[in-house]
């Protein structure tokens, strides 16, 4: 088993998921909820991220090929979605949706968390946590394990995904503590700043995707014509 490969995968996966960067946005969506509801939400989002990562780990390249979707096309689509979401966060729309949904059911923390989760699974789980970069990273390392035909390495990479998603869950659980430290005004400022960054990330995704398509597809075609 290649321990260096696994450690590199763990470091890159955690950096690309960036749960610390997504945490203020999670807090913005769940700030008005009870602690138990926030715990359920953190669990739901972490499990969703885990499920998506495992799906792309086992069938990522085949899935994209089946639908005829290139990674750059996926990156552009994710960038457009992030841009729209980032604008909404800057305008203060992120927490309102969660609070309105939670008001539908005050009797069950689990049920309230389900209702909020339906509204925030996008963008939190995908594409903020599991974006094109994360998917590309997972597909790349899965292909590496397949090429080496190392079952221990394959299992180690799966275990790494599970551990990292557990860390995401733990980090999101700390959201209540952060909310107490910075206060409502500070949280509002942080959330809007992060909204601006989310929009900028979306624009960067689109630029990267378009650049790769132009350089990798259009330029060779133009040179052929000449």
UniProtKB/TrEMBL annotation:
<feature type="transmembrane region" description="Helical">
    <location>
        <begin position="40"/>
        <end position="60"/>
    </location>
</feature>
<feature type="transmembrane region" description="Helical">
    <location>
        <begin position="66"/>
        <end position="90"/>
    </location>
</feature>
<comment type="similarity">
    <text>Belongs to the UPF0056 (MarC) family.</text>
</comment>
<dbReference type="InterPro" id="IPR002771">
    <property type="entry name" value="Multi_antbiot-R_MarC"/>
</dbReference>
<protein>
    <recommendedName>
        <fullName>UPF0056 membrane protein</fullName>
    </recommendedName>
</protein>
<feature type="transmembrane region" description="Helical">
    <location>
        <begin position="152"/>
        <end position="173"/>
    </location>
</feature>
<feature type="transmembrane region" description="Helical">
    <location>
        <begin position="120"/>
        <end position="140"/>
    </location>
</feature>
<dbReference type="GO" id="GO:0005886">
    <property type="term" value="C:plasma membrane"/>
</dbReference>
<dbReference type="Pfam" id="PF01914">
    <property type="entry name" value="MarC"/>
</dbReference>
<keyword id="KW-0472">Membrane</keyword>
<keyword id="KW-0812">Transmembrane</keyword>
<keyword id="KW-1133">Transmembrane helix</keyword>
<feature type="transmembrane region" description="Helical">
    <location>
        <begin position="6"/>
        <end position="28"/>
    </location>
</feature>
<keyword id="KW-1003">Cell membrane</keyword>
<feature type="transmembrane region" description="Helical">
    <location>
        <begin position="194"/>
        <end position="219"/>
    </location>
</feature>
């Amino acid at each position: 088993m290649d321990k260096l490969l696994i450690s590199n995968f763990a470091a890159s996966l955690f950096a690309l998921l960036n749960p610390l960067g997504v945490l203020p946005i999670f807090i913005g969506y769940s700030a008005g909820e009870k602690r138990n509801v926030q715990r359920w939400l953190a669990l739901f989002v972490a499990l969703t991220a885990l499920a998506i990562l495992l799906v792309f780990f086992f069938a990522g390249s085949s899935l994209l090929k089946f639908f005829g979707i290139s990674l750059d096309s996926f990156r552009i689509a994710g960038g457009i979605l992030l841009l729209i979401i980032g604008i909404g966060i800057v305008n203060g729309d992120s927490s309102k949706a969660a609070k309105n949904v939670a008001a539908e059911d005050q009797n069950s923390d689990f049920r309230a968390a389900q209702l909020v989760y339906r509204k925030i699974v996008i963008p939190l789980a995908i594409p903020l946590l599991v974006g094109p970069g994360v998917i590309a990273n997972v597909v790349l390392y899965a292909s590496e394990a397949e090429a080496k035909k190392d079952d221990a390495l394959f299992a180690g990479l799966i275990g790494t995904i599970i551990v990292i998603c557990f860390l995401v869950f733990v980090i999101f659980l700390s959201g209540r503590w952060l909310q107490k430290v910075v206060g409502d005004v500070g949280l509002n400022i942080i959330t809007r700043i992060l909204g601006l960054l989310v929009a900028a990330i979306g624009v960067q995704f689109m630029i990267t995707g378009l650049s790769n398509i132009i350089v990798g597809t259009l330029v060779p075609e133009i040179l052929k014509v000449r």
